[in-house]
Amino acid sequence: MKFQVDRHAATPVAQQLEEGLRQWIRHNGGGRRLPSIRRLAATHNISRNAVIDAYERLVSAGLIRSKPGSGFYVTDRVAVQANKQPTFNPLQEVTNGLWGLFSAEEHTLKLGCGWLPNDWRESDDLTYAIRQVARNSRSGIFEYSTPQGLLTLRRLIQERLRPLAITTDAQQIVTTNSGSHSLDLLVRLLLEPGDVVFVESPGYYNLFGLLHLQRIHVVGVPRLADGPDIERLEALLAQHRPKLFYINSVYHNPTGSTLTPAIAHRVLQLAERYDFKIIEDDIYADFQHTPTTRLAALDGLKRVIYLASFSKTLSSSLRVGFIASPPDLVQRLVDIKMLTSISASLFSEQVLVTLLQNGSYRKLIERLRTRLSNQMAIALTLLKKAGWEVFTEPAGGMFLWAKPPTDDETLKATAQRYEIMLSPSHLFLPDNATTPWLRLNVAYMQDPRAKAFIEANRSYANTSK
Amino acid sequence: MKFQVDRHAATPVAQQLEEGLRQWIRHNGGGRRLPSIRRLAATHNISRNAVIDAYERLVSAGLIRSKPGSGFYVTDRVAVQANKQPTFNPLQEVTNGLWGLFSAEEHTLKLGCGWLPNDWRESDDLTYAIRQVARNSRSGIFEYSTPQGLLTLRRLIQERLRPLAITTDAQQIVTTNSGSHSLDLLVRLLLEPGDVVFVESPGYYNLFGLLHLQRIHVVGVPRLADGPDIERLEALLAQHRPKLFYINSVYHNPTGSTLTPAIAHRVLQLAERYDFKIIEDDIYADFQHTPTTRLAALDGLKRVIYLASFSKTLSSSLRVGFIASPPDLVQRLVDIKMLTSISASLFSEQVLVTLLQNGSYRKLIERLRTRLSNQMAIALTLLKKAGWEVFTEPAGGMFLWAKPPTDDETLKATAQRYEIMLSPSHLFLPDNATTPWLRLNVAYMQDPRAKAFIEANRSYANTSK
């Protein structure tokens, strides 16, 4: 293998190695065996860890794979996910879609993904808090948290819900590992196989997969720019008896829309009349400048179970989320949490407490809000200029739901040309139907490739504008 | 409230406050309202955080509770869990039992608990690794891990399984949050409501609760000193068709016994004949000096699914465990992991990688093994002298299963006298039957109260010895 690794260059050795290996792979193609970790380290006079790191990145990128007892091989690379329409398997579909985004090659622009770009994340305050906890808290680095979660954290969360007009008590709050974990606990608490659950369409695909896993009958309610389609909801309630309606109130995934007070009120009236519970997923809450009406605020946490997390703003690595629950569900929720994972990470809980107490978290989300609002405005202008249709014009948050004026073929070709990774749109629909709409994450629109991609998909009817 | 807080004393303010409050509670009894956090902070000229900390500890200890919008109140303290025999509810029972140990008052001696005492934990290496990752890895503090878990970590785990003669590949390993999380993923992957699962009796109570939660029919197979009772297993196989048999091979919880090669071989023969899978729970593996035969080693990870974690040795706060799985189950296991919690903590995975790579973890477990073996020998001598019966004499690990020569009443009275918290024995039996056997954690036997308690429960037949 002929490539140089310079141990004194600014680029880390593992990254140089990865780039060299990518070239080698490009020239040599699928099926070839790579040198062993030991050998590659020896021939290039670098550490085995650097080689492991580089190989790991290539495995993540799907370029190589390891075979038991035999070493690493270049994969026969998968063709671009074009017109593939396999037998319908929602679980498989969702996880394949997710896998794509989680293990995308690093140079691709993840314009369709559901989290902030790494270079938007701010490390100073978080690093400080981590070191504080590591230095000062023996229990923090060693012990289980309490089953319900650290009380100090729950009280701080209680405080944070006050500006949203959600009145709750720390005793009603249960910490979890994430929004997904919260959903999983709630699904197991509230549902039995065969139960009916209403979801929004389009909506959060991981939830659909989770409900299929638990053999729940999923019914989609159209999501409009102001919340769920109430007329359609009423019609569906004449046919089904849902136990639960899952709603993503603010900066809805994938449409970016926000529930209005009037729709919130109507949904709650229907929930009362047809006796179903509501899960209000508010994981984008902290991206919002001025709080709007929450279902949990109107309802006072009686029928509404509220959840949010810190993964989208602070860190996806710490794994901290929470549920604010009606009082009568708390004990069983904690039971299920304990039986399935004992407790959350006390360390992560204490790190979060530090950041909430010293004001860093508040300042962080203020900066993020401003930055996202600005990006949103820029993105909307860009899309309109190119003749894309937008579902609604959000004031902030990450997501835009937009329809390109070009056909599927042009879209895919340009995405490939500009190395853009889109999220598979059909996954946002509970029945996996095809849709011309795309979820765009405006935080990735700073990259010039995004602009080029959108302009390459412009409407020729609009060229004169 | 009359007590002094000295801000310059060696004892932290929150702890002084807690002690003062405990005295006050003792004198004033249940139902009384405590001062608000703000007021107590003001009258004692201390920070509100210190008051929150103190209140939190008292809530954890069950001495006070908060009421929504009203403040903190002294609880009407729960009497010692004596002859209470409520309606049978396995889930409730397990979680109540667990709650007790997780939120026990700090001064009690948790002789029955399932983890190492805080003062056995070693912080230097762990703190170092945490700071390394916080300083050097942007992705580590921010990003999701890969769905299957960090490849470097999986390769290190693969290496660690080699001395146990478990041949596997990093592609067969999936990281999880803990042993409990591993079990939960496997239960959801492999079982449907109504399925039959064989468990060991006595065995791991959290598992029983988890299986009940998933509506699995649980059948207990007696655990003997050399592993499951093969004769009884064969008889039960004539009546039931289990999908799965859960076995805790080494330093079994709660008996401390270890599976012999002969029994392992017989179990696998039966698994073949009656076509069931085996979950080999090996979370106490690292407490063992010289590896004994693992089911996964004999079977080559075909029918056996192997799991372990780092919670018992390194830290219960980091939340890292893993599954080594037959190749055909990996993809679906990862799917379920993603749908229910997206990924494990990349930060924790990287901290563990650091400790596994720099040798600290190896040295840590060597010290723990020696310490536990010594404690085990001391405990066995002590128990035999006092005329207790022991189920088996483990060479190491934390657990001893022992039968006191005294009656239940004496046992409870002496436990109360020496402030000893025992784990509720009936929970270890899948049918929650009463049993005179107790699980003792030898790591807590260094406390003089343990010796006093055991000697207070001595056999008078043995006094002459």
TrEMBL record, chains A, B:
Superkingdom of the organism of origin: Bacteria
Q: What SUPFAM superfamilies does UniProt report for this protein, alphabetically?
A: PLP-dependent transferases, Winged helix' DNA-binding domain
Domain HTH gntR-type as annotated: residue spans: 7-77
Manganese listed as a keyword = no
Q: Name one Pfam family in it.
A: Aminotran_1_2
Keywords for this protein: Aminotransferase, DNA-binding, Pyridoxal phosphate, Transcription, Transcription regulation, Transferase
Which residue ranges traverse the bilayer? none
Q: Which GO molecular function, any one, fits this protein according to its record?
A: transaminase activity
Q: Give the record's family classification.
A: In the C-terminal section; belongs to the class-I pyridoxal-phosphate-dependent aminotransferase family.
Name of the protein:
PLP-dependent aminotransferase family protein
Q: Which organism is it from?
A: Vreelandella nanhaiensis
**What lineage, starting at the top, does this entry show?**
Bacteria, Pseudomonadati, Pseudomonadota, Gammaproteobacteria, Oceanospirillales
